[in-house]
Structure formats: structure tokens, C-alpha cells
Amino acid sequence: MSSIHLPKSVSQRGKTSLEIDRENFEKRQTVALNKAINSQETPVKEKHARNAILGTFQDQGGNMFWTIASKMPVQANPIVCWKFLQMVHKIMRDGHANVVRHSIRYQAQIHDLGKLWGHLKEGYGKLISSYCKLVVQKLKFHDKFRGIPGNLMMTDEQYYKICGADVNNYFEFSIDMLDYMDDILTLQHAVFGSLDMSRANSMTSSGQCRLAPLILCILDSCQLYDYLVKSLFHLHSSLPPDTLFGHRDRFLVCYKKLKDFYHKCSNLQYFKHLVQVPHLPDDPPNFLIASDFTKHIKPAAIVKEEEPEPEAEADDSVDNLIDMSLPEAAAEPPPPVPEVDERDFLIERLQREIRLLKEELGRVRAEDHRIITGLKEDISKLEKILSELRLSADKSFKENEELKKNLDPLKTDAESAEKLAKANQEKFQKMKDIYSKLRDEHVVLLRNHDTNAKQLSALKKSLEEKDQVLKESQLEVNRMVEEKQMVQENLQKSADDVA
Fold first, then answer.
1. Domains of the chain by residue range
2. At what angle do helices 46-59 and 17-36 cross, to 10 degrees?
């Protein structure tokens, strides 16, 4: 049976204008995402990515993006998967604020995607696995700290509100940021490791396709480095240094790798046209010295706007996604599709960035004012201490002069005192000898006393034993006398009876 093609005017009857607008919007987003996430080994074009980002503002989140992306062959084509991950990362940073919240539920899918491509040891396998791990880590980070926007840009008030006054929150927050930073550094290491730096891969399409996501990594790492430094200085002001040894050790490793990452990027021609790569200080901050915090300068990465391309591709039309096999007689012109007002979205985005920059400028000015005020107070204290030291030095000098004047009469007294001391020393030595002799005699007497006491105790015991024997003998004698008297009385009585 041959298929019947109905005119668009017939197929759209019964639909409301909102439903038609929604369908047209979905078609435009499908076109934009299919152009951004394609199988060509080239970097994602900014204009297609921008259309997808603008779509998140019209959709008030990322649901439309995930609906369209779920139909893409991310499990079959590594280039499509690589660009898909870059777009997820990009819309979380630059898209509507709800994109992050709408994307959190897809953590498990991205994790499984990383495990799948991780089995591929060559090409994009290792890169996709590392990128999936980074995206999942970012989603977990934002799920845990809901107040942090997708682009990680916050004012000081927002930053301090995340952890509040509990030092344990700063402790855990620092660990999560270090985990996040580790995944960024792992990805950049994998990307640079997949390039042949001697062949200037940064100027080839395949090399740029791999390097493009590192721009987002540079932007994320700048914010994380700033918040890490602030959090660690805050922790060291509240906890013993030994407790934070692990934090300092991990930060130092991240600092070295991050500095090397920025150095590599700054030397590549590809990045010079797209982003101003920041530079870290020569030495890492010393968290054991509180004043070292005043030397901290937040690294800034500025994305350079690409010039719009003059080309007008034929497949930009939404009609390319619609069945064009209708007979000419039955075909009717489609209803006019309302154009997305990109200018309004761009204005809103620029206003938001300007507002954030103004807040950052105000924060920097306030911080500079605080530092200057603190330095002035320190200078005032030091001047006061210096004045007191000068007065004390003058007073000590006058006292020394007076002592010198009185030194001559004291010398004579000192000689007399020295003679007297010698005489006293001799007397003391004699008394010491007498005391030693008396002590020895006393020790001998104590020893004799102990011996005599023992002998006396033995004699007492012997006397007591003899006394006991005498008492027993006396009792025995008395008993015998009584028996003798009784015998005599009995004899006398017997004699009387006989008579």
C-alpha cells in the first residue's frame, strides 16, 4: 500500500498555536543540535552551539535538549559522543539555570557511556571515558551544592553562603573541589597525550576537535582554583595545620598540574584566538602564613567572541526535516515560523555577564580597600611601636650614663665585697665539712638505732615467752598444790573414818 501524504495545512488542523510553536521550536532545536553534534571530526561550531544554548532559555531548562540528544548515536559513533559531552558541558555552563537541575537525572546514563567507550583503548575511547567521569563529577558537585551556578561564577556573598559558618562544611567543600579539579586535569592530560605535539595538531581539524572541550575546562578550573585558595586559607585560620596536611598536599599537586596545563594551552595557536589563558603565580600560596592571602589574585580566563560566519548553508532551513515528497499541486506553503529573537537572549546573557563583572569589580575594590586599610593600621601600629622603642632607648641610654658615673665608687665596694665573699666562702666550706661529718655520724647512729631496736624487740619477745612459761608453770604448781591438799584431806577423812 502506497503511503498517503497529507498537506501540512491538513495535518496541522486541530492544533493550537502553542502546539504548532512547540513543534517548530523542537524542529529548530533538532536542526541546531544535529549540526552541532555531528560525526565530522571538527570542533563544534559556535553558532550551532549558541542556537542550542538559546533554546534552553526558551525551553526554561534542558528537557528539550535531552529529548533530542537521547535519539543521537552516542553509543555508536565516538565523534558524536565526544561532541555530545562537550554540548552537555557547554549548556550547563552557559544555558538556562534549570539545565543543571534537569541534567542531574542523567548521571547514570553518562556513567554507563563512559564505561562503554572505556573499553576502546585507541582513538577517542580513553578521552570519552575521562570526559564522562568529569561530567558526572560536575553533576554530582552541583547536585550537592545547589546554590552554585553551572558556570561556577559567584560573588563573595554567594560563596560564603554555600558553607556558612561551619568549618566542617569548608573541609568537605574543599575535598569536593579537589575531586572536581582532579577530573579536569585527568581529561586535559588524556587530550594532550593523544596529540602529536610535533605536528602542530592544534591547527588541524582533528586536533581542534579534541582540544575544544579544554576551553570549558580552563573556565571551570579558574573558578575552582580561586574558591580552593579561599577555602584553604579559611580552614587554616580555624583548624590546626596538621589536620590539613592532606588538603595542602593535594592542592600542591593540583597547582603544579594546573600551571603546566595553562602553560601548554598558552603556547598553542588554537587557544590564542579563542580564550585568554590565565597564568598562575610562580609559587603556590603558603596557607601557614595568613598574610599570604593578600597576595592571592584570582586567575581570569576571558573567552574571545568568534566572528560570525557569512555562509548560509542550505540545510539551515527547518523544511529539510519535513517530508518534501508532496506533489506540487497538493503542497502549500507552511505557516510562517516565528524566529527566535536571538538578540534578546544575547542581550540577557551579556547583561548577566556585565552584572557579574560589576559585582566582581566591586568585590575586588572592597577587598583592595580592606587590604589597604589593614596595611595602614599595621603601619600605624609599627610607627607607635617604633616611637615607644625610641623612648625606651633614650631612657636606657640616660640610665647607662648615670650608672657609669656611679661605677668608680662601686668598684671599691666591689673589691671589699669580693674579699668578704671569699671569707664567707671559707666559713661556708668549714661549716659544710662539719655538716658532712655530723651527717655521717647521724647516719651511723641511725643504723645502730635500727640494730638496737631489732635486738630490743627480740629481747622483748623472749621475755614475753619466758613470762608466759612462768605463768603456765605457776598455774601447774598451784594445781598440784590443790591436788595435794585434796589428797591429804581425803587421807585425813579416811583416817577419821577408820578410828
1. 20-303, 468-498
2. 150
